[in-house]
Design a protein that fits this description.
Blueprint lengths: L1 H19 L5 E13 L9 E17 L3 E19 L5 E21 L3 E18 L4 E3 L6 E13 L2 E10 L11 E11 L1
Antiparallel strand pairs: 1-2, 1-9, 2-3, 3-4, 4-5, 5-6, 5-7, 7-8, 8-9
């Protein structure tokens, strides 16, 4: 948890420094839908996706004005996956793996014209919650690694102080211990610039 607070403090400090120098173009809030799952890895069958949400803050630090910038973010992201089983008696059984992260993407952003931009770079995730939910109960588990390194890439459409974005992230390390399964997350959302 100390790492999460340190990363959050660093994010805010960097944005404050650039804002005081008059170099920061943007600071805002964003949120939207996650469509997450894990890759098959060593499991016999692939997992089904889980739909949830993300919300957080972003900054934009221009390196080449109106062309190239650095976009650090701090995002609370509800991820995970579902597994569906059919018993011998033919009953359907579903488990939902809820894995919540504080994600810290640090993205290079290329502006193509005034409206469209593409972004990509590393993302560092800190697991803050892990739970398996069934129809009858939920249990706290400890099978998911506490740190997730990923590659993120996406596009955004910027209209004045409003943006629409789409992004895909893919883990570089396994999610569940000794499984070789990795996070795979599609995100669609909106944001507002202050």
């Amino acid at each position: 948890m100390k790492k999460v607070f340190l990363a959050s403090f660093t994010f805010l400090l960097v944005n404050c420094i650039f804002a005081q120098n008059g170099d920061s173009e943007k600071f805002g809030i964003k949120g939207g839908l996650n469509y997450s799952t894990i890759t098959k890895g060593d499991f016999n069958e692939g997992a089904d996706p889980r739909t949830s949400y993300y919300i957080g803050f972003f900054g934009e630090i221009p390196l080449i004005k109106k062309v190239f910038s650095l976009q650090p973010e701090i995002i609370y992201s509800r991820q995970g996956f579902e597994t569906n089983y059919t018993t011998i008696l033919g009953n359907n059984y579903k488990e939902e793996y809820r894995i919540d992260y504080i994600n810290l993407p640090i993205l290079a952003k290329i502006h193509i014209g005034k409206i469209f931009s593409i972004e990509g770079g590393p993302q560092f995730g800190f697991k803050i919650n892990e739970k398996i939910k069934t129809e009858n109960n939920s249990t706290i588990n400890n099978e998911v690694n506490s740190f997730d390194t990923a590659i993120a890439g996406g596009v955004s459409f910027n209209i004045d102080n409003f943006l629409i974005s789409g992004r895909y992230t893919y883990s570089l390390n396994e999610v569940i211990k000794n499984s070789n399964a990795k996070n795979s997350v599609f995100q669609v959302g909106i944001g507002f610039v202050f």
